[in-house]
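Handoff note, outgoing to incoming analyst
You'll be picking up this chain. Sequence as last confirmed:
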Amino acid sequence: MEKQRVGIVGLGKISGIYLQNLTGLFGSRVRLTAVTDLIRERGEAVQAEYHIPFIPDAETLIRSPDVDIVLNITQPQHHYGVAKKAIEAGKHVYNEKPLCVTREEAADLLGLAAARKVRVGGAPDTFLGAGIQTCRKLIDDGWIGRPIAATAFMMNHGHEHWHPDPEFYYKTGGGPLFDMGPYYLTALVNLLGPIVRVSGSAKQGFKQRTVTSEPQRGKVITVDVPTHIAATLDFTSGAVGTLITSFDVYSHTLPFIEIYGSEGTLRAPDPNTFGGPVLVSRFREEAWSQIPLLGDYAENSRGLGITDMAAAITEGRLHRASGELTNHVLEVMHGIHDASRSGVYYPVKSTCSRPEVLGKEGL
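Most recent structure output, in case you need it:
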């Protein structure tokens, strides 16, 4: 089968697992042909380890005739600029989350991609893992009846205690909702369908953060974004969701995601992982039953989304981690912030289809 050729722009912390999986687990479907980064040492290290050509200039990589898809894993504020240049060069593009910083940027990208007849995809792809896919099948097969409500909680005390360069998490395009919310919202849309209306309340717990990780230990970060967000989500299916994302919580005992149906409850695993336990309690059962996972992607399979996109290009079908899905999630996140500022519900203008189930046979 024809392999799509992938060039990576950005070699930060997340790039390691992409490099590992796209040359290993998914190496039969894609071929890495170039990498670039502003820090030359990073690119040269990747070239030495993986024997992938390092191109010092991003625009040269984007224009390369040996690149079909640009994997854009730069920091959020650069997602739009890099992706737009790729689309203008006639390349497909797959962005890390969020798709862009603003709704206007995302709309421009999707419109331009449609005009140039190229594809846009985007992270997260964890919803394609065995954990959330098993949950999807249980819901579709009626194990908990009609979904009525959902809860989702992502709460910790931020990234400055472990990340080597945590400042951007507290700037525009960051915060717990834009950094981690895409995992939870994408999983919920996959399980329950698109969202039509949101409300929200967003606050800033700490105005400054002190880095305790290396190499920036002691650096003081000024926080520019809300760090505790509580939201209500109304789905087209009629289900009502509650979402809390926070960088202000030291510890808690709340579940990652639970779906409440007319005949039982489904507890989903951490949507920032590909596997994890899936639990069901039906009717008035007090005990939870653990359900065996379906499919092969239970370990860290980051890169699954762009590999599915590459396969879809070759096979002439829709890809699952689509630009429409990532754009919908982006608008929902902005809508939650808008609702907090205005004090009224935000009607979501975009929509998307629930992605096709990834069968247990995988790609």
